[in-house]
């Protein structure tokens, strides 16, 4: 696809170039408000709105692909799609395998959630979602880690006393905490990553450059901050 | 979409429920039952074909073919199916694209670049310009192949046993009539083996039904995927917020599977009776006695 | 080589919580993958062995109940077998976990003694329970089939010797039924062994990163983003263990058939009978 997307950009190039080939963007669709499946069964959320806007600015034709989190990177490197926008934090582990664009969200805080203030976060039992950066973090602490495949089970574990606290992305947990009358945020927030970026293949420099350009432009004119606020609320972290 | 569903937050009770159960993604959930049935309907014959090939191969007189048949059946059966599904479909996909890249691409460009697997645009499967349904269909196609490889190995075993169970005397009679080995296979062995194969194949069908929840591992949006997605707690960000309802969705799926297996058993009982007619087995004998 | 020995020392029993606390984080070697996945296999063997052991007794009771003429014994057994044979194990795990977490955390008071229930949600107990009930249902169907296919002559011979009730059951009915059921039961054992990979894959949480072979394989695949090393390693382990299981059940088969000259043939893994 790289040849194509590029081609579209390179308007100065040969006149014979046809329509831009489609850029396929993968997302998980299970991590609201970043990405989710709406009531019409379509992917929606912050990343979908942002991705569509970026594609428009970069003059790319984009389609969305739903992919399971576990295989989202293997499928990118085997070229089943061209980009990942799935709340994927930029970190060293991933940078060895794929490339990231500039961050489109500032480093996201991770928070602890528990039933009461006194929960033991240092050496107690902490529930996390498998395969997240938060899970890697808890594995390094003295806490006893309990891993669940999805966020519902994580909260269920806290509610029924299975775990003393849950640890996860602040923005993902916030709506649950606000909706509930028993869960509260406790302890200090932790920053675990270098922000969230779009994952692309390491060989795919052209696409990365185009997306970088669009992200920079959106940061510049404040439209990215506006989009963040519509999806994450007025208090969300934005770019300076 | 029902007419009164424009403002879900104002609804209550049954009206709310009726709207909730008819949202777009619930429709996809109901359709996914169709996906599962479709997949079963396609996989069963394909797996049977693989099985038939495997069974014939392991009876072959050519040592190489025979060993291939034996190794295929015993390897696949020694490994849990879920493990297969975790890497075989990606491997298949890369295999197909590699083959196509030899035809459509410049062969001097390596397909593996570092950890990346890249083929030229013309060799991509499906082409990245293809509409979304082609991608979905291709995903289902890979799932069917993966299932068929695994269940074909089991079917090969059943059929192999059934072929050995056909009474020697029947085959010898055919030979005495001067039929060639090929004719014996086609006219006697294959038609006669089904009654012996049926119990095993019936079981295999049951196992296949019960393996379909693993479809979501293959990236197919099946009933388990939607049950998780819809059942998970929905916050106020959604039009229809609700707490964690996965239990109810999974109970519905449980009922679906129980009905499927129950119905299948009824049908197999009938086929069994039909195939036993006139056979040299205890069941056939019993029918003969009952008739006189 | 020495490095690998060190790895085995550090991670060989990691799945039980012994050795290094932290899993390897980067620069994964083949040795680390083979060792950790092998360590996870301990859990697969644990689940399979105990579920088969307990399930075997339950299955015998269920088979007798299903063969009984008393509807109060027969109906519950039939329903139990239908429920567990008719639905995917995957769904059973999920539902069982959901039910087990409903148990009160403080324990249940039985005649003044508080029975702890919180350990039931741990995989070692909860998943074992599900696997046991599941294999009991499948095996019961196999044993029930065997009971119905007992050769009439042997029962008549037992009657002729004046055996009745328990003696007849213990000396004639049960050994013969086991002999008939054994090949199919071998297949069931293999299937159950393979099913243990689902424990951490669906429902039950992994505690302190102590999981089964698939859990660690998944960990590596997730960290290296390469499914083509870790999963084939699990596959290889399972082929070896399946062969071991077949050999073990073959020994039992030979013992069951020892009085029949020439009948104690090698047991063939034929998954075609009942499951």
UniProtKB/TrEMBL annotation, chain A:
<dbReference type="Pfam" id="PF00497">
    <property type="entry name" value="SBP_bac_3"/>
</dbReference>
<dbReference type="InterPro" id="IPR018313">
    <property type="entry name" value="SBP_3_CS"/>
</dbReference>
<keyword id="KW-0732">Signal</keyword>
<feature type="signal peptide">
    <location>
        <begin position="1"/>
        <end position="20"/>
    </location>
</feature>
<comment type="similarity">
    <text>Belongs to the bacterial solute-binding protein 3 family.</text>
</comment>
<feature type="domain" description="Solute-binding protein family 3/N-terminal">
    <location>
        <begin position="22"/>
        <end position="235"/>
    </location>
</feature>
<dbReference type="GO" id="GO:0030313">
    <property type="term" value="C:cell envelope"/>
</dbReference>
<dbReference type="InterPro" id="IPR001638">
    <property type="entry name" value="Solute-binding_3/MltF_N"/>
</dbReference>
<protein>
    <submittedName>
        <fullName>Amino acid ABC transporter substrate-binding protein (PAAT family)</fullName>
    </submittedName>
</protein>
Automatic annotation (TrEMBL), chain B:
<protein>
    <submittedName>
        <fullName>Amino acid ABC transporter membrane protein 1 (PAAT family)</fullName>
    </submittedName>
</protein>
<feature type="transmembrane region" description="Helical">
    <location>
        <begin position="137"/>
        <end position="159"/>
    </location>
</feature>
<feature type="transmembrane region" description="Helical">
    <location>
        <begin position="247"/>
        <end position="268"/>
    </location>
</feature>
<dbReference type="GO" id="GO:0055085">
    <property type="term" value="P:transmembrane transport"/>
</dbReference>
<feature type="transmembrane region" description="Helical">
    <location>
        <begin position="71"/>
        <end position="92"/>
    </location>
</feature>
<feature type="transmembrane region" description="Helical">
    <location>
        <begin position="27"/>
        <end position="50"/>
    </location>
</feature>
<dbReference type="InterPro" id="IPR051613">
    <property type="entry name" value="ABC_transp_permease_HisMQ"/>
</dbReference>
<dbReference type="GO" id="GO:0005886">
    <property type="term" value="C:plasma membrane"/>
</dbReference>
<feature type="domain" description="ABC transmembrane type-1">
    <location>
        <begin position="33"/>
        <end position="259"/>
    </location>
</feature>
<keyword id="KW-1133">Transmembrane helix</keyword>
<keyword id="KW-0813">Transport</keyword>
<dbReference type="InterPro" id="IPR000515">
    <property type="entry name" value="MetI-like"/>
</dbReference>
<dbReference type="Pfam" id="PF00528">
    <property type="entry name" value="BPD_transp_1"/>
</dbReference>
<keyword id="KW-0812">Transmembrane</keyword>
<keyword id="KW-0472">Membrane</keyword>
From TrEMBL, chain C:
<dbReference type="InterPro" id="IPR043429">
    <property type="entry name" value="ArtM/GltK/GlnP/TcyL/YhdX-like"/>
</dbReference>
<keyword id="KW-0812">Transmembrane</keyword>
<dbReference type="InterPro" id="IPR010065">
    <property type="entry name" value="AA_ABC_transptr_permease_3TM"/>
</dbReference>
<keyword id="KW-1003">Cell membrane</keyword>
<feature type="transmembrane region" description="Helical">
    <location>
        <begin position="189"/>
        <end position="208"/>
    </location>
</feature>
<keyword id="KW-1133">Transmembrane helix</keyword>
<feature type="domain" description="ABC transmembrane type-1">
    <location>
        <begin position="41"/>
        <end position="252"/>
    </location>
</feature>
<feature type="transmembrane region" description="Helical">
    <location>
        <begin position="228"/>
        <end position="252"/>
    </location>
</feature>
<dbReference type="InterPro" id="IPR000515">
    <property type="entry name" value="MetI-like"/>
</dbReference>
<keyword id="KW-0472">Membrane</keyword>
<dbReference type="GO" id="GO:0006865">
    <property type="term" value="P:amino acid transport"/>
</dbReference>
<feature type="transmembrane region" description="Helical">
    <location>
        <begin position="77"/>
        <end position="97"/>
    </location>
</feature>
<dbReference type="InterPro" id="IPR035906">
    <property type="entry name" value="MetI-like_sf"/>
</dbReference>
<keyword id="KW-0813">Transport</keyword>
<dbReference type="GO" id="GO:0022857">
    <property type="term" value="F:transmembrane transporter activity"/>
</dbReference>
